[in-house]
Design brief:
By secondary structure, the chain is mainly α. The chain has 8 helices and 3 strands, in the order H-H-E-E-E-H-H-H-H-H-H. The chain has one domain. 45% of the residues lie in helices and 6% in strands. The protein has a 3-stranded mixed sheet with strand order 1-3-2, with helices on one face.
Length: 170
């Protein structure tokens, strides 16, 4: 993992992003964005600090929340069953297969945000310290993520063309 000062300088944050673009994407998945004041604890954040949080249909963040964290938590919301969404409070509680699918989907959704794109998402995931057995997000996504692709396809969260369906898992 990079040193924290380097991460601060390189990872794209909500405050530096097209917020309307992002909020519009999240609304397609029935998520409401709640912005917490700077320096305050983010409700529903599993990891704490500036990481996004989930409680029910609310995604919580601060201006300093990394965009990759926002999309990661969004994808947890998308990938969990409806029964889990109804009880959602902080811990997405996913399996390893679902966690990998979350990472895959967040990379795909990055392409739906013109201010972000796939390459920036992959770079930010590496800078933040996501761990993949091939050493980086790009190699994992391009060479080692077939199971994640298939998981998303099975649950109708992407189509045959690897495009998001904008549906929530049932």
């Amino acid at each position: 993992m990079s040193n924290p000062q380097n991460i601060e300088q390189t990872v794209l944050r909500f405050e530096d992003f097209n917020q309307i673009e992002l909020i519009s994407l999240l609304a397609r998945y029935q998520l409401e964005v709640q912005i917490s004041p700077s320096g305050k604890t983010i409700p529903g954040s599993f990891w704490g600090d500036a990481e996004a949080g989930l409680i029910g249909h609310h995604l919580f963040l601060r201006q300093d929340t990394p965009i990759h964290s926002v999309l990661h938590e969004t994808c947890h919301f998308i990938c969990m069953t409806d029964a889990r969404r109804k009880q959602l409070d902080t811990n997405a509680g996913s399996s390893q297969a679902e966690e990998n699918a979350v990472c895959y989907l967040q990379i795909l959704l990055a392409d739906d945000l013109p201010s972000l794109g796939r390459q920036r998402m992959l770079s930010d995931m590496d800078a933040w310290g996501y761990s993949f057995r091939l050493g980086n997000a790009r190699d994992w996504f391009e060479q080692d993520a077939q199971e994640s692709h298939d998981w998303l396809l099975t649950h109708d969260l992407i189509d045959q063309g690897k495009l998001p369906t904008y549906q929530l898992r049932l």
